[in-house]
Write a structure and sequence with these properties.
Tetracycline Repressor, domain 2; Homeodomain-like_sf; DNA-binding transcription factor activity; 0% strand; HTH-type_TetR-like_transc_reg; 75% helix; transcription cis-regulatory region binding; Transcriptional regulator, TetR family
Length: 185
């Protein structure tokens, strides 16, 4: 019997491959080779599932990455590098998933609220890393936005920019960071 995480993983895969309209009990049960009864063992209804899926997306693709980076520690520049490696190499975080959640957010208030929160959390984390790297205060927000918008834009163009193609783009962007934190006189 599949557990709650299995249903959520199936939901992320379905969302990435087919979009939010495909998030139906029938489609998810078929994907897992299970009955609807198994679904109802874990979720009251499809609305509850969709809410749980959005929470799972946020935890897996935002707070989970931040937690991993923070646990590894290191300088802000090292944490930037670790974050980029995670984002560019995680096979469980396909570009299609990011695009699908953004598309869902255009049609659904709860998805929109989640996407806004995710965008805010990600940008704030990048701001904290930039500030810790010694970026001048007036440049912290623009650099954080630049780094994040490059990622979002890479997902939105057709065809999406591959992780391999993103590495030199981020290497260039990372040159905007000071080599060492600047001390205040």
């Amino acid at each position: 019997m599949a557990g709650r995480p299995d249903w959520l993983e199936a939901g992320l895969a379905t969302l990435a491959e087919e979009g939010a309209p495909a998030l139906t009990i029938e489609r998810l049960a078929g994907r897992l080779g299970l009955t609807k009864g198994s679904f109802y063992h874990h979720f009251k209804n499809i609305g509850v599932f969709r809410s749980a899926l959005l929470e799972y997306f946020e935890a897996r693709c935002t707070t989970g990455y931040i937690d991993l980076v923070e646990r590894a520690g290191g300088s802000p520049r090292a944490r930037f590098g670790r974050l980029l490696d995670l984002v560019l190499t995680d096979e469980h975080h396909p570009t299609d998933l990011e695009v699908a959640v953004r598309a869902w957010a255009l049609q659904d208030e709860e998805a929109r609220a989640t996407q806004e929160r995710v965008d805010h959390l990600r940008t704030e984390y990048l701001r904290s890393l930039a500030a810790g790297s010694g970026v001048p205060a007036e440049e912290v927000t623009p650099i954080a936005r630049l780094l994040y918008l490059v990622l979002v834009g890479a997902h939105q163009v057709l065809p999406p920019v591959s992780p391999e193609e993103m590495r030199p783009v981020y290497a260039l962007a990372m040159r905007l960071l000071p080599d060492e934190p600047r001390s205040n006189p």
